[in-house]
Design goal:
Largest sheet: 4 strands, antiparallel
Shape: elongated
Number of helices: 2
Helix content: 10-25%
CATH architecture of the largest domain: 3 Solenoid
Strand content: 15-25%
CATH superfamily of the largest domain: E3 ubiquitin-protein ligase SopA
């Protein structure tokens, strides 16, 4: 789909939403079923009631987009930017990727801290969050094991976190906005394999 084609669909959708031209006008609800929208800039787009079923929205910029009542069943939103997006009443199912909240209860998480694989317990009481990728964050965790070290110290420009087996490590602050993926927190994955592949240094 070209940018021009997408722009025409969105403009027709906008006119359909507001009833421009009356009931006889040939403006249509956006039908983007299965569309390749990977990495597309849709900042502030009005996609209310749009059909985005099975759409590839990986890495799409949907900041401040209005997705209320949109059909996202089977859509792939991994890595999409959904900061300040409106998501009330979106339709999704078990095939929708990237919108489900972080799992509850006690969790075992895995992180790569200064090159060392760290096994973490995320207690059920700890607040946790995820945006649209497989990277999660928690307000605190218990370090269970460190591979190849007795201690790992992770520093960035905001804070220092010390990981030692059997000790609690706490984020220096907590952000409730789940779509702020890189906000402060103890960053982790649900599988060791994902942690092993992670390259960036995070608290």
């Amino acid at each position: 789909m070209t940018r021009k084609e997408l722009a025409e669909i969105l403009e027709s959708h906008r006119k359909w939403l507001v009833g421009e031209g009356g009931v006889k006008a040939n403006f249509r609800r956006a039908d983007l079923w299965g569309a390749n929208l990977r990495g597309v800039n849709l900042i502030g787009a009005d996609l209310r009631e749009a059909n985005l079923r099975d759409a590839d929205l990986r890495g799409a910029i949907l900041e401040k987009a209005d997705l209320r009542d949109a059909d996202l069943r089977g859509a792939d939103l991994r890595g999409a930017d959904l900061r300040e997006a409106k998501l009330e009443n979106v339709k999704m199912n078990y095939l929708t990727v990237g919108l489900q909240p972080a799992p509850q209860g006690d969790l075992i998480g895995w992180g790569k801290k200064n090159g060392h694989i760290v096994k973490l317990l995320i207690p059920k009481e700890a607040r946790r969050s995820c945006a649209t990728t497989r990277k999660y964050r928690a307000e605190y965790a218990i370090c269970l094991e460190i591979e190849g070290a007795d201690e790992v110290i992770v520093k960035n420009r905001y804070a220092t976190a010390v990981y030692r087996p059997s000790e609690k490590v706490v984020a220096h602050e907590w952000c409730e906005d789940r779509w702020e993926e890189c906000a402060p927190g103890i960053h982790f994955f649900l599988t060791r394999e994902e942690a092993e592949q992670w390259q960036n240094v995070k608290i």
